[in-house]
Amino acid sequence: TWTPGAFVDLTVSELKEKIGDKKVVLGLSGGVDSTVAAVLLNKAIGKNLYCIFVNNGLLRKNEFESVLDQYKHMGLNVKGVDASARFLDALKDLVDPEAKRKAIGNTFIEVFDDEAHEIQDVTFLAQGTIYPDVIESVSVNGPSVTIKSHHNVGGLPDFMKLKVVEPLRMLFKDEVRRVGAELGIDKELLGRHPFPGPGLAIRILGDVTEERVRILQEVDHIFIQGLRDWMLYDKVWQAGVILLPIQSVGVMGDERTYEQVVALRAVESTDGMTADWVDLPHEFLQKISNTIINRVKGVNRVVYDISSKPPATIEWE
Ligand code: XMP
C-alpha cells in the first residue's frame, strides 16, 4: 500500500541517485505542487536546488511577500524576482483572454530564462507536474509548473533544453497534499485553493491596468479572508472575484455614483473539470457585500455567480 512516508524515502533516494551533485532549477508558483516538489528536492540535494519565484504582479494581495517569506523559512534556496512591471507592460491594451494568457506565458518564460542563466552549470529543470497534468496536459497550476512549448515564439528557451525532473508525476492531488504534510509543510499552504497561472489578469475582464489589479486585490482579499473567518474556506474548492468591465449607478449620501461591479465566485469540485456553485450563507454574502462596497473605493455593486460548469467555466475568461 502507498504511504506518504515510504514515498518520501524512496523518492529522496531516487533523486539523490539521479541528480548526484548537479544543479537543479525550479519555478515556484506559491501553489501546492511546486512547493511540495521543491521541499522534496531540497531534502534530497539541498543547496543545489535553485528555486525561482516570479512576481507577475497578478497574484493575490501581499501574496508574493508572504509566500516568499514562507519559502525562506522552509529553508529553500529561493530567489524572488519582482517582474510586475514587465508583465503589466506585456498586457497593455490586451482584451482577448487567450492573448492575455499568451502574453503572460511568454513573459514568464523570458523572465525565467534570464534568471536561469544567472545560475552557472545547471543540468536539470524540476517541475511540480502531477498525474492529472500528465494525462490531460491541461494544468490547473501556474505556468511556472507546467510550461507548454506553444507559449514561445523564437525557438526553445535555454532552460527548456534542460533534463526534466518531475518527482510528483505519478501522484494525485490528495496524495501530493499528504506528502506535503509528511514533509512538514504548513497546513494552510497545503490547503490552498487552486489559482490560475495568469492570475488576476483573467479575472479582470477587459484590459488589465495597475489600478484595476489593485481594486481586485482589495476585493478578493476581503472575500477570501471572510471565507476563512466564517470557516467556509475549506468547504469551497476554489473562490475568487471577477472585476467586470462595466459601471453601474449607485447612490452614496445624496450623490449618485457610477462605479465598477464585481462578481463573487465560489465552487465545489474535485478536479476542476466540472463544478457546482456553492450556496454560501446569505448572511455571509450580505456582510461581505457591505464590507466590499464600504471599503473599496470604485466598487458600488456586488453580484454572486450562480452558474455551474458546464456550461459555464469556473473562470470568466
Ligand atoms: P475553467 O475556467 O476552465 O478552469 O473552468 C478550470 C480550472 O483551471 C484553472 N485555470 C487555469 N489555470 N492557467 C492555469 O494555470 C490558465 O490559463 C487557467 N485557466 C483556468 C481555473 O482557475 C480552475 O481551477
Quick take:
With 317 residues, the chain is α/β, with parallel strands linked by helices.
CATH topology name of the largest domain: Rossmann fold
- Approximate strand percentage: 15-25%
Overall outline: globular
Question: How many H/I helices?
Answer: 10
Measure the end-to-end span.
41 Å
* Strand tally: 9
Structural class, please?
alpha/beta
| Radius of gyration (Å) | 20 Å
Total tally of structural domains: 2
| Average of per-residue pLDDT values | 93
Report the uncertain regions. Answer: 138-153
**CATH architectural name of the largest domain:** 3-Layer(aba) Sandwich
CATH class of the largest domain: Alpha Beta
Widest sheet: strand ordering: 3-2-1-4-5
User: Main β-sheet: number of strands, strand sense, barrel status?
Assistant: 5 strands, parallel
Task: Spell out which ligands are present.
Answer: xanthosine-5'-monophosphate
Secondary structure layout plus pairing:
Elements: H1 4-19, E1 23-28, H2 32-45, E2 49-55, H3 63-73, E3 78-82, H4 84-91, H5 97-118, E4 122-126, H6 131-136, E5 163-165, H7 173-182, H8 187-190, H9 210-229, E6 238-252, E7 255-268, E8 276-277, H10 282-295, E9 299-304
Helix pairs in contact: 1-2, 1-7, 2-7, 4-5, 9-10
What does it look like?
This protein is of the alpha/beta class and 317 residues long. It has two domains: 4-190, HUPs (Rossmann fold); 209-304, GMP Synthetase, Chain A, domain 3 (2-Layer Sandwich). The chain contains ten helices and nine strands. The protein has helices at 4-19, 32-45, 63-73, 84-91, 97-118, 131-136, 173-182, 187-190, 210-229, 282-295; strands spanning 23-28, 49-55, 78-82, 122-126, 163-165, 238-252, 255-268, 276-277, 299-304. Strands 3-2-1-4-5 form a five-stranded parallel beta sheet, sandwiched between helices. Strands 6, 7, 8 and 9 form a four-stranded mixed beta sheet that branches. Strand 7 (255-268) and strand 8 (276-277) form a beta hairpin. Bound molecules: xanthosine-5'-monophosphate.
